[in-house]
Amino acid sequence: MAAARPTNIGNALAKHDLVTGCTLMWHEEGVMAAEATFLPTPGGGTAEDDGVLLSIVMSRTGTSFLLILDAASMLELARAELPYAVPYRFHGAFLPFEATP
């Protein structure tokens, strides 16, 4: 999570490259994104950020949506609107199919 000023609240998602010092950020005015979950590209990719980020976002209308970002570019690929609100900072976990009971 990150904060787009002037607030200190986690209202953005950011990726920082420690080698180049470059930071990429996704932000939309008036929404609050939760901690993102990384899903690697099936079959494995060549880069460490080859995959997507999933985040539940609380919208300004009081509902939520699932945000899907390209993990390499931090560009929005899709969103799925939910007919209800998911509490802000709701945590989830990704388990590969093989790890599920």
How many helix segments? 0
**What pattern of helices and strands is seen along the backbone?**
EEEEEEE
**Spans where pLDDT lies below 50 across 5 or more residues:** none
Taking the alpha carbons of the first and last residues, their distance comes to: 30 Å
Helical/strand content category: mainly beta
> How many DSSP E strands?
7
Q: Strand share of the residues? A: 35-45%
What kind of sheet is the major sheet? 5 strands, antiparallel
**Rg over alpha carbons:** 14 Å
How much is the average pLDDT? 85
Question: How are the SSEs ordered, and which strands pair?
Answer:
Layout: E1 12-16, E2 23-27, E3 32-33, E4 37-40, E5 51-58, E6 64-70, E7 76-81
Antiparallel strand pairs: 1-2, 3-5, 4-5, 5-6, 6-7
Characterise the protein shown here:
By secondary structure, this protein is mostly beta strands. 0% of the residues lie in helices and 37% in strands. It has strands at residues 12-16, 23-27, 32-33, 37-40, 51-58, 64-70, 76-81. It is globular. The protein starts with 11 loop residues before the first strand and ends in a 20-residue tail after the last strand.
